[in-house]
Amino acid sequence: MPFQAPEAVRVISTRAWGLLVAMLVLMVAAAAAVHVTVSVLNEEAEALELVGGQRMMAQRSVVLASQLARPDLPAQSRQRLQSELETMITRMRGEAQWLIDHDDVPADIASLYATAWTDEAGVMARLHHNLRQILDGRGDVNALNHREAMLFNEEAAKRYQRHAAAEYQNLRLVTFLAFVTLLGALAGLFLLVLLPGIKLLQAQVQRQTVLGDAITQSGHGVLMVDSGGKIRYANAAAEALTGFDAETLLTQDLNSLMFSGYGGNGAETILDRALHSSWRGDVRLMRKGGVMTWAEMVVSPSAVDGKYLVMLFDASERREAQAKLRQARERLFSAIEAVDDGFALYDSEERLLTCNRRFVGMFPQLEPWLTAGTSFFEIVLRMAKLGLVDMPQGVDKFVAMRLALFRAAQGESEMRMTDGRILRCIHRRTPEGGRVSVLSDVTDRIRTQEQLQQALDQTQAALRSKATFLSAMSHELRTPLNAIVGFSQLLDSTPDGQFGPKQRRSASHILAAGRRLTDMVDQVLELAELQDGAGALTIAPFDIAALVRDTVPVTDWGEGESDLNIVVSGCDMPVQVHGDCSRVGEILRHLLANAVKHGQAGGRVEVAVSATNHGAVRLTVSNDGPGLSADLQEQLFRPFGRLDGDADMGIGLAISRILAERMSGRIGVDSAPGQGCTFWVELPAARQHGHGGPLLPEPSVQFVRQVL
Predict the structure, then answer these.
(1) Phi, psi dihedral angles at 246 (to 5 degrees)
(2) What beta strand segments (E) does 488-563 contain?
(3) Percent of the chain having pLDDT more than 90?
(4) Distance between CA 589 and CA 591 in Å, rounded?
(5) Number of C-alpha atoms within 13 angstroms, CB side, residue 234?
(6) CB atoms closer than 10 angstroms to residue 160
(7) Which whole-number Å values give the CA distances from 606 to 155, 214, 677, 701, 706, in the listed order?
(8) How far apart are CA 511 and CA 501, in angstroms?
(9) Are 412 and 424 within 8 A, CB to CB?
(10) DSSP E strands, 125-278
(11) Cα 150 from Cα 155, distance rounded (Å)
C-alpha cells in the first residue's frame, strides 16, 4: 500500500517549480544589474584614488625639489632624493595619462586632465617641466607652480566625487528594486503554492493509515498478517530478507518462516503476546533454500481490526558483533588478570564493576566487599575502619581525601599501609564517565629512593664541609701571606748598595710568589662562595664591546711572558648583552691570562665579539699555542687541573664556568693538537632600541696590544 500523491499535489508542485524558475530568473537579473553597477563603482573608486594621488604626488614632488635645493645636502642623500623624485614624476605622469585615456573616466574629467597635461600652458605640464629642470640641476624651486597644481587637483577630485555620488545613488536604486522583486516573488510563492499545498498535505496525512505510513517510511522488512498468522502483505525489503518473492510469501504463514524455541506454533504465541502490546525479540528465519538467518522481529497490533504489523530487521551482523564482543570481553578479563598490578573498574556511579585477583590479594580483609556493585566510598571506608591504612589525619579526612583523588582522576598518589607497604594509586576516567584504578606496590622502589636521597644529602653536606674548610683555611693563610708580601716589599724597596743583584732577585721571586699565593687564596674563597650559592650577581644590559676595549689595554699579565700581539676585533660598535658587567670582565681576564700564559712565543692572541644563530653573543679568546686534545679539554674547567705534567691550570677557569652558568650563559673551548685554543663565552643578547636584536658589527680589527 504505497503512498499515492493526489492530483492536486502534482499541480501545486508544477506551479511551484514554475514560480521558482521565475524567481531565479529575477534573482539572476538583479544580481547582474548589481554586479555591473558595482563594477562601475570599482572603476570609479580606482580613478578617484588616482585623482587623489595626483595631489599627494604633486605635493611630495615639491617637497623633494625643495630638499634638493639645499646646498649642504650630502651626496648620498641627494642621490636618494633624485631617485625618489624621478620615480614620483614618472608615476604622476603615467597615472594622469591613464585618467586621460581610460574609457570609464567621465569625459569632462578626462578633458580637464588633458588640458592640464598636454597643453604647454597647462598647470600640470608646467609643474612637470619645472620639476624636470630641477632634477637636471637647471631649474629654480621658487618657479614651481605648486599652489596652482594643488588647486587644480582639488577641483578635479571634487568633480569626480560628485560623479561617484551619482553612481552610488544608481546602485542603491538597483538594490532596492532587486529586493522588492525578490520579496514579491517570495510572497507569491507562499500565497499561491505553499499555503494551498500545506492544506492539501494535511488532509492527505489524515487519510493515510498507520500501515501506509509504516510501509512508506520503513526501509526494513514489513509484513501484514492476520490473527491466524497468514501473510497478507510483504514489501520488497521482506522479500530480500527472506529470499522469497511476494507471491510465494502470500501463500505462507508467519510460523512457516520461523525456527523458534516456542514450540511447534511459535507465531501464535508471539501474536498472543502482541495482542495488547508490542512484542520484540530475535528469531531465526528460514530463508529460501533452507538457510537460516537471525532477524529482529517487532510485532504490533494494526489499526485495522484483526491484523498485525510485523517489522523485520536483519540482526545477523549485530549477533556476530555481540559474539565478538563477548570474546573481546573474555580476552580483556584475561589480560586484566595477567596484569602484575591491582586493577579495578568502576562505573559512572562509582560502583565496582570488576577487579583482578592481584587487587583482591592486596586487601585480603576486604574480599567480602570487593564484589560488583560495591561503591568506592564503602571500600575506602571499610579499609579505614579495618585499620589497613596509616592515616594520621583521621578516618573522615582520609576518606574525603581518597574520594576527592578518585573523582579528580588526575596524577598519582601514595597510600602507606599499616603493614609497612607503600601503594601507588593511579585513577583515570573512562569515556563512559567511570573510573579505572591501578594500584602498584612500590615499597622497594620508595625505600631505594629514600636511601639515594639520604646519600645525596650526605654528599651535599660533605661538599658544604669542604667549602667551609677551604674558606677557613684561606682565611688562615691570608695572615702569613700578608706578612710575606709585606716583608718582601720592604726587601724589594731596600736602596741599592745594601743588597746585591742576587739578593734583589731572590726578594723579587719571594714577592711574586706571595702575590700569586694571595691571588690564589682570593680565588679559592670566591670558588667556595660560588659553589655554596653565595655571591650575588647584578644582571643588567651592558655593552660587552666597551668592556673588551676597556679591559684588554689595562690588564696586567704578570712577568716573564713572551712577547705576544693581542688583537681585538668586532668591538667598534656597541653590543648589548645581559649579565653582570664586572663578573664578565673577571671571566675575560681569566681567559686572557690563560691565553697569554699558554700562547706561542712571538704569536698572536685574538679577542673577538660575534653573534650566534640562537640569539646570543659570543666572546672568544684565541691563541696559536700547541693546542689541546679532547681528553685534556675536560680537565680545563676543574679546579687545579693539570695538562700532561705541566703546571696546574689554577681555578680561574672553574670560577669562569660557574659565573657564566649563573648568568644564563655557557663557556667552552675548541681546540686540537697543534692548532691553538679558542675559549668562548656565550651570553644572552639584549635587544637595543629600534633593533630586533643585538647590534653586531662586521668583524674588523680595532686595536693591537703587544705584551712584552
Answers:
(1) -60, -40
(2) 540-543
(3) 8
(4) 5
(5) 23
(6) 23
(7) 69, 95, 11, 10, 12
(8) 15
(9) yes
(10) 221-226, 231-234, 258-259
(11) 9
Give CA–CA dist 254/228, Å, rounded.
9
Start-end of H helices in 69-145: 75-101, 107-118, 123-135
> Could you identify the residue written with the cell 669562569?
656
* Tens-digit pLDDT profile for residues 268-326: 788 888 877 788 888 888 888 778 888 888 888 876 667 888 888 888 888 888 888 88
Closest of 55, 25, 347, 380 to residue 181, by C-alpha = 25
Record the cell numbers describing residue 290, joined without a space: 533452507
Q: Look at the block and give the residue holding cell 677551604.
A: 470
Q: Are 652 and 516 in contact (CB under 8 A)?
A: no
- Give residue 561's identity as a one-letter amino acid code: E
What the block records as the C-alpha cell of 146 is: 605648486
What's the CA gap between 176 and 156, in Å, rounded?
A: 31
332/351 Cα distance (integer angstroms): 19
- The CA-CA-CA angle for residues 579, 581, 584, to 5°, reads 80
434 CB neighbour count, 10 Å cutoff: 17
Which residues face 352 on adjacent strands? 346
What count of residues does the chain have? 708
Q: Among residues of the chain, what percentage have pLDDT more than 70? A: 73
Strand partners, 204: none
Q: Is 1 exposed, middle or buried (0-12, 13-18, 19+ CB in 10 A)?
A: middle
Handedness of CA 525, 529, 531, 537 (dihedral sign): negative
Q: Are strands 435-441 and 412-416 parallel, antiparallel or unpaired?
A: unpaired
pLDDT for res 4: 41
Residue range 457-469, pLDDT digits in tens = 887 777 667 667 7
* 129-138, 381-390, 482-491: range with lowest mean pLDDT: 482-491
In the block, cell 597615472 appears at 95
Cell numbers given for 534: 653565595
Which residue in the block uniquely carries the three cell numbers 663557556? 667
Contact 358, 342 (CB under 8 A): yes
DSSP conformational letter for 366: G
Domains of the chain in sequence order: 7-185 (1.20.120), 211-320 (3.30.450.20), 339-441 (3.30.450.20), 448-526 (1.10.287), 536-707 (3.30.565.10)
Between CA 640 and CA 633 the distance in angstroms is 13
For cell 549485530, the residue is 318
Count the Cβ atoms, other than its own, within 10 Å of residue 704. Answer: 13
What gap in Å lies between CA 298 and CA 425, rounded to an integer?
48
Quick: pLDDT tens for 372-411: 899 999 999 998 999 889 888 889 999 999 999 999 988 8
Contact 585, 554 (CB under 8 A): no
